[in-house]
Design goal:
Number of domains: 2
Radius of gyration: 38 Å
Number of strands: 23
CATH class of the largest domain: Mainly Beta
CATH superfamily of the largest domain: TonB-dependent receptor, beta-barrel domain
Largest sheet: 8 strands, antiparallel
Distance between the termini: 125 Å
CATH topology of the largest domain: Maltoporin, Chain A
Order of helices and strands: HEEEEEEEEHHEEEEEEEEEEEEHEEHE
Shape: elongated
Strand order of the largest sheet: 16-17-18-19-20-21-22-23
Length: about 425
């Protein structure tokens, strides 16, 4: 009888303890404070998650409260900048919880000097392949070929793509765009402008054209803030070629191109190519005619891991440009406004000689170098009216007193030379 009573007492006691523990656990509120282990600063907005779901986040002071949580349950504290930490609830106040900082692993970033690689280089860019160029190109300068690319705007002075042309990328004009031709910068050293008119029919030799929008991770420098345009031409090709291309179009636009390539005739390690082009057009706009000629030649030598490319590009242009407007006083006078509409003449010869060297040191290391020489000379001229003698030092004969010469004016053709 005594044993039976002891068993009943033990059973009732255990049941009471379990019920009290259950009630206690269900009503308990757990608190704590989360800080960074390295700096001691509170970690705001960290996730505090129970193992079976539910949870909360820390406030700006790093503190949190969890209601209706029982002892012995597991919580995990996580934050994007720190390692996850898990612990077992042993009391109402968990005290200070320290999180170790972590670095998120990211994809490797490839930094190249001239070319971007799809899916690897972190920059917005697009490529025009040789096939795309062949399908779309006729006589226009490079900017007019790029006008269909995202973020690119182009226009030409003549109105039909020949002569002086300009390009903008994301609103930046070409003085803020780095332009390369076979790794040779085409931007002027002083103004950083690009004179596409000096390089007639360059797309006839192009292997591809890459347009980078924005500065990206390249080594072009601060001058490439708006982006970059990189034109690569080809020398070597598998088969010999001799081609003559002619064309005629609107506004008396004419083109003739003669191309030759050695293919494999010079052996497997040596290739040569040459091109002569002549383009002329009256232009869509009046007084905007242009005449362009170009000669390009290249030799490529390959030996083991080294490739050398020697190029010569000679371009000549003569273009007329009507930039001056008609004076307000001549608007209603048909003859006067025609007389006053004078065209500027631009005449320039440019020569570019370059040597590109590529040496594959091993699979992960490449040496590239380019040495180049750029020469040029030419002039631009414009008709000027009502110009003072003294302004142009035309008083050297001293035929009149100074008081008279100061009032003398003349019409003249002014020519300025550039070298």
């Amino acid at each position: 009888m005594l044993i039976q009573r002891n068993i009943q007492f033990f059973f009732v006691t255990c049941l009471s303890i379990c019920m009290m523990a259950s009630l206690y656990a269900g009503d308990m509120t757990v608190s704590g404070r989360v800080i960074a282990a390295d700096s001691g600063e509170p970690v705001a907005y960290a996730n505090v998650i129970l193992e079976d779901g539910g949870g909360t986040i820390t406030d700006k002071a790093g503190e949190f409260l969890l209601s209706a949580v029982g002892i012995g349950r597991e919580i995990t504290i996580s934050h994007i900048a720190y390692r996850d930490t898990s612990l077992i609830i042993s009391s109402e106040n968990l005290g200070i919880i320290r999180l170790m900082p972590t670095v998120l692993p990211g994809r490797d970033v490839l930094v190249t000097a001239t070319r971007a690689i799809e899916g690897v280089t972190p920059v917005a860019f697009s490529n025009l392949s040789a096939e795309e160029i062949r399908m779309r190109y006729t006589v226009e300068d490079v900017p007019m070929m790029l006008t269909l690319e995202p973020g690119v705007y182009s226009y030409s002075e003549s109105g039909n793509g020949t002569g002086y042309s300009y390009v903008q990328i994301r609103g930046f004009d070409q003085s803020r765009i780095a332009v390369m031709l076979d790794n040779v910068p085409l931007n002027d050293n002083e103004s950083h402008q690009v004179y596409w008119v000096d390089h007639a029919d360059i797309l006839a030799d192009a292997r591809d054209v890459q347009i980078q929008r924005g500065i990206g991770n390249s080594l072009y420098g601060a001058a490439a803030f708006g982006g970059s345009i990189n034109v690569q031409t080809r020398i070597a090709q598998p088969e010999p070629e001799l081609a003559l291309t002619t064309g005629y179009g609107s506004y008396n636009t004419q083109k003739i191109t003669l191309q030759a390539n050695s293919g494999g005739k010079l052996g497997e390690n040596l290739s040569a190519s040459a091109r002569f082009s002549a383009i002329s057009s009256d232009g869509y706009r009046e007084y905007h005619d242009s005449r362009q000629k170009a000669f390009a030649a290249g030799i490529e030598h390959r030996h083991g891991a080294m490739t050398n490319q020697l190029r010569a590009l000679i371009g000549y242009e003569n273009a007329n440009l009507a930039w001056d407007g008609v004076p307000a006083a001549d608007i209603d006078n048909r003859e006067a406004r025609r007389r006053g509409y004078k065209a500027y003449t631009d005449d320039f010869l440019q020569q570019i000689y370059s040597l590109n060297t590529l040496y594959q040191i091993h699979s992960g290391l490449v040496f590239r170098n380019v040495a180049y020489l750029v020469k040029g000379n030419g002039y631009y001229e414009v008709a000027k009216s009502g110009e003072n003698f003294y302004k142009y030092n035309l008083d050297v004969l001293d035929q009149y007193p100074d008081s008279v010469e100061w009032t003398l004016e003349t019409d003249l053709l002014r020519r300025k030379w550039v070298e």
